[in-house]
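Before surveying the methods themselves, we first show a specimen of the format, giving the amino acid sequence and backbone structure tokens:

:::
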Amino acid sequence: MTRKNDDNINSLCEFLKLEHPECYDFKNRIKKRANDYATETLLENLANIENCNPIKTALISHNFTSKYTRLHLDSSAGGCKLTDEIYCKLWGWHFTNSTSRACPKELKTTLKLKQTTDFQLGSDTMNSFKTIYNKAIEIYEKEGLEHKVYDNENLQKYATLTHTIGNFTLIPFQIRFSNDYRLKNFNRYRGCNGKIKDTWDISLNEMKRYFGKEHEKYGKEFFKKYVDTFFLKMYVDENYNVLPLFSRPTRTLELQENPLPQTLDELNIFLEVANARILQRSLILLSELNKYH
């Protein structure tokens, strides 16, 4: 028996019985714990969250989780039990592995790592809603169309899909490209680096470059194993070269100025490609999860 998407999901079994779990918006879960944290104003906003334009809903959610990081929907702070249960079922990993710096033995075996290799994973949201929303506002303002941004159907869809199962993953936590303590892990590095700006295609390419350089520690095939293990093949070609989320003559997957879309056409191409890949990955993850139920 299937059920309509709602916020009253208490377990992975209930999640898998949803009518369309691939489209389940994890922002629905914020209301379940809002009373423990929120101010009266935030509670009033959250009360109407599902009745809002999807873009406005995502903004309300972002403002709430930015203030209460414990409730990050990708469980990067350990606050979303459903996300944690999904990680555990798929990869034997849960939030305590992040805090203890331990990678499960079975996962190390899958990744073909030596059990003695120090390797830590952390959860992350791959494609950022807020980064793209901010850029969309900038683009629309340049065109004199700022009143139209909430009507962009691709952006509305992206606002929902960025908080679905297909946009959550585990990333190698301890990759460091900088001695700056503020960039102490890969999550912060890709989010704070102005030449990446949280774009998933450039982030993934940086990861590939890093593991290629560190092949003696991780093995020559590690990036391929990482992509396969975390069901990321829609982001690479048959030779495991990272595919761009959008293109322009001057944009590559190397670190660069202006890695985000700069025009309305580039924005919509990015949104269409990102939405399709998130949804594709959601369906793959659900197929894997259903093997256990």
About this structure: The CA atoms of residues 194 and 241 lie 23 Å apart. The chain has one domain: 74-290. The chain has a mean pLDDT of 83.
